[in-house]
Specification:
CATH superfamily: Phosphoenolpyruvate-binding domains
Bound molecules: 3-methyl-2-oxobutanoic acid
Cofactor: Mg(2+)
Helix content: 25-40%
Oligomer: single chain
Active site: 186 (proton acceptor)
Largest sheet: 8 strands, parallel, barrel
Order of helices and strands: HEHEHHEHEHEHHEHEEHH
Radius of gyration: 22 Å
Binding site for Mg(2+): 49, 88, 120
Subcellular location: Cytoplasm
Number of domains: 1
Shape: elongated
EC number: 2.1.2.11
Length: 281
């Protein structure tokens, strides 16, 4: 699990066994090309419901549907050979009952071929996580800032400060006891993330949490500089592909308007080997 380039297929028990070892590398993917890029560098790839905001221009993740997660999951599956694939359960697809959660998780697994699902919520979702894991569905939990609860939180602020820390710690313990094989800790204070990581037996995957977590996850488009609407404090940009892409598009537009594109090498002659005849005069 510590290889810098991944060559074997990762399983949920292997992720569990990685607790306290070399940090697990996790990224999101929503498409086949991105899945191919991240596959050999990650232990886990998440088809996150952030796809709604990043690719579909939605204001939050609440409008993401099971159909969307299934379609993006199928695309990602075609690009992965090594990393463990986790698909997010979207808002409204699991909260009603453990039975609803099982039905929809089973749909995501059968339609996309993912190995695990992720769902948001701590103590309130423990019964559901237990129901799924006892029936053979590996679950990654997600506590702290859970974006599907943006309306209840009143925004995307840091969770678990001061007296609220015990709530988040209780959530992490509850999902561990319910059988989750890992848990995302999002946007909580560093000392709390360290404490939770030390206290629970499953790997913690941090995003805006702490370098002490057992792994880290980021939205790939954020680290590549492809999503420009906002930049969370917890993102480090490793590239500025959005700006590069716009410069390339502007150069293309300029060439077209100046009849500099297409060039002679991009057009076809009358015969396969022939060169296009130059017009004389
Ligand atoms: O939807 C998502 O991409 C996520 C990660 C940021 C953890 O939940």
């Amino acid at each position: 699990m510590s290889a810098s380039v991944q060559t074997s297929v990762i399983t949920p028990p292997q992720v569990l066994a990685a607790k306290g070892r070399t940090p697990l590398v996790c990224l999101t993917a929503y498409t086949t090309p991105t899945a191919k890029l991240v596959d050999r560098h990650c232990e886990m790839v998440l088809v996150g419901d952030s796809v709604g905001m990043v690719l579909h221009g939605l204001p939050d993740t609440l409008g993401v549907s099971l159909d969307m997660m299934s379609m993006h999951g199928k695309a990602v599956r075609r690009g992965l050979e090594h990393a463990l694939m986790v698909v997010d359960m979207p808002f409204g697809s699991y909260e009603e009952s453990p039975q609803q959660a099982f039905r929809n998780a089973a749909r995501l697994i059968t339609e996309t071929g993912c190995e695990a699902v992720k769902l948001e919520g701590g103590e309130a979702m423990a019964e559901t996580i237990r129901f799924l894991t006892r029936r053979g569905i590996p679950v990654m939990a997600h506590v702290g800032l859970t974006p599907q609860a943006v309306n209840a939180f009143g925004g995307y602020g840091v969770q678990g400060r001061g007296a609220d820390s015990e709530r988040i710690r209780g959530d992490a313990i509850a999902v561990t006891e319910a059988g989750a094989f890992s848990v995302v800790l999002e946007k909580i204070p560093d000392p709390l993330a360290r404490r939770i990581t030390a206290d629970i037996a499953i790997p913690t995957i941090g995003i805006g949490a702490s370098a002490a977590c057992d792994g880290q996850i980021l939205v790939t488009d954020d680290l590549l500089g492809q999503f420009g609407d906002f930049l969370p404090k917890f993102v480090r940009r490793y590239a500025d592909l959005g700006a590069q892409a716009e410069a390339a598009i502007a150069a293309y537009a300029k060439d077209v308007r100046a009849r500099q594109f297409p060039g002679p090498e991009h057009v076809f002659g009358d015969t396969p080997a022939g060169k296009p005849k130059r017009e004389i005069g």
